[in-house]
Design a protein that fits this description.
The complex is a heterodimer of chains A (164) and B (193).
Chain A (H helix, E strand, L loop, with lengths): L1 H11 L5 H12 L5 H44 L3 H28 L4 H16 L4 H30 L1
Chain B lengths: L1 H15 L4 H15 L5 H13 L4 H39 L1 H6 L1 H30 L12 H18 L4 H24 L1
Helix pairs in contact in B: 1-4, 2-6, 3-4, 7-8
Classes of the chains: A mainly alpha (164), B mainly alpha (193).
């Protein structure tokens, strides 16, 4: 979606410059919720204030909503059909591949250090093996991250003080 | 009330998941499959399949889909509204002073923890979807040589390869659906012979 946004909004409409777009991507990825919705709300606000963000968000949601709404009746109608059953057997395997791809993409973006590896391992075990509530795992992850950040900074400051 | 419950469930999803569509799956599975029993694990994977293969953000698609299946048009409206609301409010607040937000140490620290956590959770989603795909009737050692296991492994392997070649998700779903139909009829033929 990002290359699309860059072409449409920075080059064609001149609504925002490329640097602002980069900021928008960073903020959209580090706030909760669907990234596309975050970006739409943000861009809408930058361009035209509250109602701008309202219209932009509605614009992102509408096509999805209409397509899925219509499609759901179609799927319910063909459910139980042998060919559809076969197709879904294949599609489930395809979806697994899509999720594997998402995992690989996220991993490539993640900083590679011992802390990250431990956190990946712990959160995986917490969800897949121990079956802990996902919400609790997310909140703990954020808190541990904050703690690690301040501890890391504290150590750096001490080092600096010693070097002086 | 089902409308309120749909709204609140997706409100939680919108307010607490970071890192996009795939990172939402474990949370959604927790809420819709385990806690509420709205969907079976297999139905969940089918819903994910439909939502991944239609245009638009995955989260909006699956919210609309679960909403309409559970409570019709207004169910879909409540679910989607719940999902979007936290993003909308949070971004509006941040848009006013985002220079400060970017440099905020709490945000930096939280992201330091949340980035790897979302990877761990997507990996958990891989395991849970994998068990639906490869062991639909529960785990046993016979399943490793079953027709379903072998054909699923072929499809999945090929599709991971094509995904990494940047083939569009919609094509991945179309192709794996076609292969599923092919393997399904092949099985019928093999049983007859």
């Amino acid at each position: 979606m990002i290359p699309f946004m860059e072409r449409e909004m920075a080059e064609k409409q001149n609504w925002i410059d490329k640097e602002t777009l980069l900021d928008i991507v960073v903020v959209s990825e580090s706030t909760p919720g669907p990234i596309a919705i975050n970006a739409a709300t943000f861009i809408g606000y930058k361009v035209a204030g509250f109602w701008g963000s309202f219209c932009a968000t509605l614009g992102v949601v509408m096509p999805s909503f209409i397509i899925i709404y219509a499609l759901s009746f179609f799927i319910d109608a063909v459910k139980g059909n042998t060919i559809v059953e076969y197709a879904f057997r294949g599609i489930r395997a395809g979806v697994l591949a899509l999720v594997v791809k998402a995992m690989i993409t996220l991993f490539k973006q993640c900083p590679k250090n011992a802390f990250a590896y431990v956190m990946i391992g712990l959160s995986f075990v917490a969800v897949a093996v121990l079956d802990l509530p996902v919400l609790a795992v997310i909140i703990s992850g954020a808190l541990i991250g904050i703690a690690a950040f301040f501890i890391g900074r504290g150590i750096e400051k001490k080092k600096e003080a010693r070097n002086k | 009330m089902i409308y309120l419950e749909l709204f609140l469930m997706f409100l939680k999803l919108g307010a607490f998941t970071f890192g996009g569509g795939a990172a939402m799956m474990p949370f959604l599975e927790d809420e819709a499959v385990k806690n509420r029993g709205w969907l079976t694990s297999q139905e969940f994977v089918d819903f994910v399949a439909v939502s991944e293969s239609t245009p638009g953000p995955f989260a909006v698609n699956i919210a609309t889909y679960i909403g309409v299946e559970k409570a019709g048009f207004f169910g879909a409206v409540c679910a989607t509204f719940g999902l979007v609301l936290p993003s909308f409010v949070i971004i509006l607040l941040i848009a006013r002073f985002y220079e400060k937000f970017k440099k905020n140490n709490l945000v930096k620290g939280a992201m330091k923890g949340l980035t790897p956590v979302s990877i761990g959770m997507v990996t958990a989603a891989v395991v849970s979807i994998g068990s639906v795909v490869f062991f639909p009737n529960g785990f046993s050692f016979d399943t490793f040589i079953s027709y379903n296991f072998i054909t699923s492994a072929i499809i999945c392997g090929l599709m991971v390869f094509l995904c990494l070649k940047k083939l569009h998700p919609m094509l991945i779903v179309a192709l794996s659906g076609t292969m599923g139909i092919g393997f399904g009829f092949l099985e019928k033929l093999l049983v007859k012979v």
